[in-house]
Every structure is written in C-alpha cells, then in structure tokens.
Write a structure and sequence with these properties.
The protein has 15 helices and no strands. It is mainly α and about 270 residues long.
Length: about 270
C-alpha cells in the first residue's frame, strides 16, 4: 500500500512538473530556431538561455547558444558557451571545431589548431576540420602542413572548390607555380571565381602575360569594381607593349581608388 501511494505521489506531482519542464524547453528551442531563421540572433540567444535554465547540463544547448552568439558577433560569449559545451561533453567534435573557428578569427592560431586537431581525432571523416586546420597552418607559415590537410579534405570531399583554391595558394607560397595553376584551374571548374585573379597573378609571374590578361579580364567580367584587377591587367598589357590599353586600365584602377595607379600612369603613360 505504501509503495502504491508513493507511485501515485510521483505521478501526481513529479510527473506533471517533469513533462511541463520538457514542454517549456522544447518551446524555447523552437522559438530560438525561428529567430535564427529570421537572422534575429539576439532573440535566439534569449530563448536558448531560457531553455538552458531548464536543462543546465545539456551540452547541445550551450553549443546552439554559442553558435547564435558567434553570428551576433559576440565572440567572447560564444567561446564561453563552447567551453561549457566541451566541459559537459569533451567528445563533441562540433564544439571543438566551432571554438577553433572563433579562436582563429581572434588571432589565436595555436589554440585554433589544437581544437581542429581534437575535432579531427573525434571525427576522422570531417573534411571541414582538415580544411580549417590547413587554413590556420598556412597563416602561421606552415604551408607544407597546410597542403597535407588540404589533401585530406579533398580526399573526403573532392567537390569543394575552396579547398583547391587554398591548396593552390599554399603551393604558390612554396613557389610551386605550375602546381598552383592546376589547383586554381580545378577551383574554377568547381565555380570558385576568386581563382581567376589568383591564377592570373601566377601566370604573370611565369611571364605568361597573355594568359594573365585573359584571367584578369574574366575576373573583371565577374567583378567590375575591383581596382586591383584593372591595375594588374594594365601592368600585363604594358609588358606586352599594349601601352594605350594598359594606361586605360591604370586610369580605371585609379578611378576606383587604387592610388598606385597614378604612379604607374606617371611612369608609363606620359
């Protein structure tokens, strides 16, 4: 009889509170997700915070709020949430990766690399973590290490043009210009339009001025407001003896705000 009374007590008092709490938590999460869809990240943060009050030990809620804070440019607040998420679940690869991104943005490449490395240990099949670690390694000058990570990212996802673009940049930094051109060409095939400018610069270094002009011209078709494109094309045209065309490019670059263009005009066009 005492056992039955205890069960009834739990159902009458503890049960309703438990389910009400879960319902409240779910409603806050739904509201937060709706806010995120509208890009109202402050609203999302408020609702994730209310959900966290109900479930203080849920690492995923801290991860979600940290992501919303990152999008709201509260980077320190985001790191605090990712720290808590990792403390609650040290094997959460996504939280390590997310914290690494913010640390990288804030200039702490060493800590970022440590987080990306941990994320890779936890999820060997995550191409993005290799890509991100490669970017951080490139920034600190470890281009060979960066290339190895880009290789791994490409093996896992060969359709990401940005990885080929960044591997091309690392190869270019190591003076492997022909290898860089191959990677930039692959990036272009995968719709990374930034690679036209980069490939044009490498072709210029190889004294393939006609090829460089073709790439700069294509890049201008895609972005006619980039003053660097006109300036670099102007230099390439000047090297081919196309003085008038080159000087017009310098003029356009100056018009768009590239101050060195007028130094080039003074030197080459008068």
């Amino acid at each position: 009889m005492k056992k039955l009374t205890c069960i009834v007590f739990i159902l009458l008092f503890v049960g309703p509170r438990f389910y009400a709490q879960n319902i409240d938590t779910s409603s806050f999460i739904i509201k937060a997700e709706q806010c995120e869809e509208k890009k109202d990240f402050e609203c999302a943060i408020i609702n994730y915070s209310k959900a966290i009050e109900q479930k203080i030990d849920d690492s995923n809620l801290f991860f979600r709020r940290g992501t919303a804070k990152k999008k709201a440019f509260d980077l320190k607040g985001a790191i605090q949430d990712f720290n808590t998420a990792i403390g609650l679940n040290p094997n959460d690869a996504e939280s390590h990766k997310a914290r690494g991104v913010i640390q990288s943005v804030m200039g702490d490449k060493k800590s970022a690399i440590e987080d990306y490395t941990k994320a890779i240990e936890l999820r060997r099949d995550d191409a993005e973590s290799y890509h991100l670690r490669g970017l951080a390694l490139a920034v600190i000058g470890d281009y060979l290490g960066a290339i190895q990570d880009y290789n791994s990212a490409i093996e896992l996802n060969p359709e990401n043009g940005y990885v080929y673009y960044h591997r091309g940049s690392a190869k270019h930094s190591l003076k492997d210009n022909r290898g860089a051109i191959l990677d930039y060409t692959k990036a272009i095939e995968l719709k990374n339009d930034d690679a036209y400018f980069a490939r044009g610069n490498v072709k210029f270094e190889l004294k393939d001025y006609r090829g460089a002009i073709l790439d700069y011209t294509k890049a201008i078709e895609l972005d006619s407001k980039d003053d660097r494109l006109y300036f670099n094309r102007g230099i390439a045209r000047h090297r081919l003896g196309q003085i008038d065309e080159g000087c017009l490019d310098f003029s356009k670059a100056g018009e768009l705000g590239y101050s060195k263009a007028y130094e080039a005009i003074e030197e080459f066009c008068n």
